[in-house]
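Appendix B. One record, verbatim.
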Amino acid sequence: MYDPEVQRSYAGLAEGYGFRTCPPHDPQKKSVFESGVKYIKKSFMPLRTLRDLPDANRQLREWIMQEASVREDGTKREQPLARSPSRSRC
């Protein structure tokens, strides 16, 4: 039986930033989460100058709200920002 545990430091990070941790139901679905990292590296990072961590957070927050969350998701075919929080599940 696959029963992953969330690391204590990651659980603390999640609590501090106010998001839930959801262990994958299937280790083979790990690529779904990794594709989000690739999307940020490919779409957000190029041609940006990040002076420090607060500046990086500010730029990332603006990019998420103005671009990333209003585009149509390639898998679900809907805008991530329009998705109801009640539909997000582990």
